[in-house]
Amino acid sequence: MADRLPKTTDRRVDWDSLPYGGDLFGELQLAQEAAPAAARASAVAALWPGLAVCSVAAGAAAWLSDHYGFPIILLGLLVGLSLNFISHDARTHLGLDFASRTCLRIGIVVLGFQVTVAQIAALGVAPFAALAVVMAVTFAAGMGGARLAGQSRYAGILAGGATAVCGASAALALYGVIGKDRLSQAQFALTLVGVSLASALAMSVYPVLAAEFALHDRQAGFLIGASIHDVAQAIGGGYAFSDAAGSYATIVKLARVALLAPVVALVSLAIGPAEKGAGQPVWKRLALPWFIVAFLLTVAFNSLVAVPAPLVHVALVASKTLLLLAVTATAMRSRMDLLLQMGWRAIVPVAAATLASFAVSLGFAAALL
Question: pTM surpassing 0.85?
Answer without folding.
Answer: no
